């Protein structure tokens, strides 16, 4: 499954990753800047906050309460904000566009 990361400066990086991996894990494994993921994917730090491309928003699973409340701690939250450790790749998400924020 292809993931396209765009950083706040507009630079894009395209990576291939296995289904079932989280977008956060893919970012860390590919040294994508802008994702800290301090808690290692436990939905407890909000430093894996990203913006999801509009075309993929409707394909994601709805946020769990925990993700919603953790997002309150993220900076510059928008309608398309998600925690990348809670987005698991699947065929549906092929080509998903993820924009990383300037800071976490
Ligand atoms: Fe900590 Fe996602 S890695 S909330």
From TrEMBL:
Its cofactor is [2Fe-2S] cluster. Pfam families: Fer2. Gene3D superfamilies: 3.10.20.30. PROSITE patterns: 2FE2S_FER_2 (PS51085), ADX (PS00814). CDD domains: fer2 (cd00207). InterPro entries: 2Fe-2S_ferredoxin-like_sf, 2Fe-2S_ferredoxin-type, Adrenodoxin-like, Adrenodoxin_Fe-S_BS, Beta-grasp_dom_sf. Residues 1-104 form the 2Fe-2S ferredoxin-type domain. GO terms for biological process: P450-containing electron transport chain. Keywords: 2Fe-2S, Iron, Iron-sulfur, Metal-binding. GO terms for molecular function: 2 iron, 2 sulfur cluster binding; electron transfer activity; metal ion binding. It comes from the Bacteria. Belongs to the adrenodoxin/putidaredoxin family. This is (2Fe-2S) ferredoxin. It comes from Algimonas arctica. The lineage of its organism: Bacteria, Pseudomonadati, Pseudomonadota, Alphaproteobacteria, Maricaulales. The gene is fdx.
